Amino acid sequence: MTETESPVARRRTFAIISHPDAGKTTLTEKLLLFGGAIQLAGEVKAKRSGTQTRSDWMGIERERGISVVTSVMTFEYGDCVFNLLDTPGHEDFSEDTYRTLTAVDSAVMVIDAAKGIEARTRKLFEVCRLRDIPIVTFINKMDRESRDPFELLDEIEKTLALDTAPMTWPIGRGRSFAGTYDLKTNMVRRLDHDEQPIQASGPDDDAVLGLLPEHERAAWLDEIMLAQEAARPFDLQAFREGHLSPVYFGSALRNFGVRDLIDALAAFAPSPRGQQAAGRLVEATEPRMTGFVFKIQANMDPNHRDRIAFIRVCSGKLTRGMKAKLVRTGKSLGINTPQFFFARNRALAEEAYAGDVVGLPNHGTLRIGDTLTEGEDIVFRGVPSFAPEILRRIKLQDAMKAKKLRDALQQLAEEGVVQLFIPNDGSGAMVGVVGALQLDVLAVRLQAEYGLPIAYEQTRFSLCRWISSEDKVEMEKFMEAHNSSIARDLDGAPVFMAPNTFQLRYDEERWPKIVFSDVKDYQ
Ligand code: GDP
């Protein structure tokens, strides 16, 4: 066994994907409680004391009560080290949310049992699918009135084209929710006695039926027999390939079913996977350190205008004091103060392995998608861009500062604050985001860091797609015919902007040789 093999095998790096209000925060707290990472739900403590400084965040986020600091939560449970990467949601939903999913090896999909698959869940799932990330499903809020479990499974299969394998089955729902039945082992977990499962002889065991009101028993027996007969069996390989999701039922609020979930992550979720770089696959167990930047966070400490670049370590061992090569520039970078981030604290990272996330203080040297290595010239195809859903034109109040604005926008776009688009027709720069808070953050940072007050203007465009074609002539024709709807992104790649999906579809149909893409790989 090589030095890095065993720490790698123990690690599970994952995120939770869900629609707002499905229970992500509640579940996160419960998971952390299992890991002993926090003492009280909601109160997160770091592992090492002494070296921590309390982090703070930008005024704008503080005003809104949004925690942007919780980037990664590390906890141990059983033999595993879990890195739970936070996917910002609600108002702070942003491209970071998508980008975080490029740094995980698996995801937990939380579904509200009364609502089923909701819009945000579907979007985040699609991002996971780009890399066939294995998904464990947690159907939450079973203690409330909920939909028929078969119907929920069917909805997952149909809307996400993802096979499901129920591992447990709810015993009752809503007010009669009494626990779950393990379809394979016949073990019964009772609500409020989660830690003491009982072995049943079958679903018709009195110990099971006795948990339900009498008038519900017959219908439930029919239901679970059907589930046992008709449900798809769990298949580890199909799960690892991202085609099949094991499904657990529970209630995060009642801390029920969370144990099943964490056990499932330990047993089935992959340890850090090999990461595809241009040219070759980098295995997590390789001895030399590699990693990529998937997120840059500014102003975590208002006293120091610091920016932290978050690196996902992909192989080898990152040690404090080592030198790494920043492949994009070829320059050497001293890793002197790598940090682990906890909910509101940070601590110096002495060493980190594949699957771990460390923050590097950074003054504009690192940008999203950058690869760090111990010398090898490889570039991870890690972090794509996603087509923005909000487009705005920037209105500069002082026209004399146009050049300064351009430079500032370039820098902030490289950090991934917003996406920048320069229209071909010479009109003013546009920015694109997936979450409205990104626009506020940009305006605040332009003012605070560059002294540039700006305003936003609506544009007639509401969406955009990267365009490409194997047929150069056709591409030129298209660009010419749509000159006022074409812009260039940060890397100069052409983008087509449309006022609505109707127009986009129309052009897609009329120009079959043009590829319209809503995702663009960085490199
Ligand atoms: P998030 O927006 O996905 O982070 O959702 P939260 O964890 O904040 O939960 C949203 C609301 O649902 C809160 O009021 C929670 O108390 C509630 N909630 C979460 N899980 C459960 C559950 O299992 N049962 C019930 N009844 N309520 C829940």
UniProtKB/TrEMBL annotation:
GTP binds at residues 18-25, 86-90, 140-143. It holds the Pfam family RF3_C. Coiled coil: none annotated. Keywords: Cytoplasm, GTP-binding, Nucleotide-binding, Protein biosynthesis. The keyword Cytoplasm applies. It is found in: Cytoplasm. It comes from the Bacteria. Its main location: cytoplasm. Residues 9-273 form the Tr-type G domain. Belongs to the TRAFAC class translation factor GTPase superfamily. Classic translation factor GTPase family. PrfC subfamily. Increases the formation of ribosomal termination complexes and stimulates activities of RF-1 and RF-2. It binds guanine nucleotides and has strong preference for UGA stop codons. It may interact directly with the ribosome. The stimulation of RF-1 and RF-2 is significantly reduced by GTP and GDP, but not by GMP. PANTHER family: PEPTIDE CHAIN RELEASE FACTOR RF3. This is Peptide chain release factor 3.
